[in-house]
């Protein structure tokens, strides 16, 4: 890894830290095995096989569960080379090895890919403290954030602080099922200050059908990926109310504007250009038309808000997890705490609808009466 990767670590295991020498091959572990986690493993495994600077094998940590057949998910993945529950029908690559033991899955790895629903990252990081290599680099593909008493915390920051390692991010217009079928798409790597590390992540993820661009704006890239899920829920309400494409386009525009304002509220360093990368406008578009948050929000609105998101998620997604409902609650808390709810009417209304305080049709009232954005 690059120079910075070995200089700033504090509380991690020191195993392998002297491997930074000629002939050293990177080892990659993927922490998470949902739909996107499985696709991420497939992308990475294609490259580790083809690039001499990586060990072929990619470990993929599996949150173990027992399938209806009685077989363990991990065993089924290793037997079929498919994630039969979260990504059936797609071969991951023979060099992907599923492992239900988190410590064992990260052991020896110097490149860690975090890709679990954001509500689980707290426990995962806590159990990894002291277990990862001191020279490891991490990347987060997680679209969400942590809100602590002290305030909001990016997932990449949380991983960095908990494990004492640097953490970049990869976000973008990335519906996992389409990338699994090798349909062309783009993504954005957000990095802090080490371009060399960013290039290594770009190399690890890039394939002929997956184009990755590095951007030195980790906060902007990550917050775009996080906040677009809130806009997707608003778009789902519009679809559930059969309000049409013009209304949806208006919601997307309002949403993008609130995303930009919220990003700059938290981090004045966020760059305007970031919103024109795949992680920005492109992800908002794809998620508002083809994402799971949109789909479940549509069902919520069609049911008049009478069936909860939890119930609909369990019924419609079979174990996959929505991020938008939790995220908008967290965003709402941040804004309420700072007395800024009135400046973010779309985000506030989405939360009030999700939590049952307003009916789904309030998204219309929002559009008509509350368009009071700051410049
Ligand atoms: N699916 C996509 O198209 C897509 C695309 C880009 C980014 N993302 C983001 O990637 C992240 C991961 O999403 P995904 O689609 O891979 O997952 P998913 O929603 O498909 O699957 C849920 C995962 O959570 C795991 N899980 C359940 N309970 C758990 C627990 N207690 N502890 C740990 N893990 C548990 C399940 O085993 C499963 O692997 C999310 O932040 C998501 O927003 C998803
Ligand atoms: O299916 P969603 O709503 O979780 O969105 C998936 C991806 O984030 C789209 O880029």
Automatic annotation (TrEMBL):
It comes from the Eukaryota. NAD(+) binds at residues 32-37, 63, 120, 176, 292, 321, 323. Residues 217-364 form the Glycerol-3-phosphate dehydrogenase NAD-dependent C-terminal domain. The keyword NAD applies. GO terms for cellular component: cytosol. It catalyses: sn-glycerol 3-phosphate + NAD(+) = dihydroxyacetone phosphate + NADH + H(+). Residues 28-195 form the Glycerol-3-phosphate dehydrogenase NAD-dependent N-terminal domain. One of its GO terms (molecular function) is glycerol-3-phosphate dehydrogenase (NAD+) activity. Substrate binds at residues 143, 292-293. GO terms for biological process: carbohydrate metabolic process; glycerol-3-phosphate catabolic process. The active site is at 228 (proton acceptor). Its EC number is 1.1.1.8. Keywords: NAD, Oxidoreductase. Belongs to the NAD-dependent glycerol-3-phosphate dehydrogenase family. NCBIfam families: glycerol3P_DH. This is Glycerol-3-phosphate dehydrogenase [NAD(+)]. It comes from Gossypium mustelinum.
């Amino acid at each position: 890894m690059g120079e910075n990767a070995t200089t700033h670590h504090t509380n991690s295991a020191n195993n392998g830290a002297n491997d930074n020498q000629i002939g050293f091959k990177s080892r990659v572990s993927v922490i998470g095995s949902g739909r996107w986690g499985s696709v991420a493993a497939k992308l990475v495994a294609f490259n580790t096989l083809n690039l001499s600077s990586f060990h072929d094998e990619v470990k993929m940590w599996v949150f173990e569960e027992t399938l209806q057949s009685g077989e363990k998910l991990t065993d089924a993945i290793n037997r079929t080379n498919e994630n039969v529950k979260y990504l059936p029908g797609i071969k991951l690559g023979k060099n992907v090895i599923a492992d239900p033991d988190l410590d064992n899955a990260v052991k020896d790895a110097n490149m860690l890919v975090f890709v679990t629903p954001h509500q689980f990252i707290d426990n995962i990081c806590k159990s990894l403290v002291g277990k990862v290599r001191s020279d490891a680099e991490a990347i987060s593909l997680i679209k969400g954030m942590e809100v602590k008493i002290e305030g909001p915390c990016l997932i990449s920051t949380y991983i960095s602080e908990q494990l004492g390692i640097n953490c970049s991010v990869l976000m973008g217009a990335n519906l996992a099922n389409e990338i699994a079928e090798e349909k062309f798409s783009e993504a954005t790597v957000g990095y802090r200050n080490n371009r060399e590390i960013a290039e290594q992540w770009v190399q690890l993820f890039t394939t002929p059908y997956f184009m990755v661009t590095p951007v030195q704006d980790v906060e902007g890239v990550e917050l775009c990926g996080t906040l677009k899920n809130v806009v997707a829920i608003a778009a789902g309400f519009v679809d559930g109310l059969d309000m049409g494409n013009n209304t949806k386009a208006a919601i997307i525009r309002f949403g993008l504007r609130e995303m930009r304002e919220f990003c700059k509220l938290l981090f004045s360093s966020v760059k305007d250009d970031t919103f024109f990368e795949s992680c920005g406008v492109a992800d908002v578009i794809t998620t508002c038309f083809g994402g799971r948050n949109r789909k479940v929000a549509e069902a919520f609105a069609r049911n008049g808000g009478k069936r909860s998101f939890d119930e609909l998620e369990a019924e419609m997604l079979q174990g996959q997890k929505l991020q938008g409902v939790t995220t908008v609650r967290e965003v709402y808390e941040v804004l309420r705490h700072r007395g800024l709810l009135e400046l973010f009417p779309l985000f506030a209304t989405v939360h009030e609808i999700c939590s049952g305080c307003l009916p789904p049709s309030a998204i219309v009232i929002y559009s008509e009466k509350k368009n009071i954005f700051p410049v």
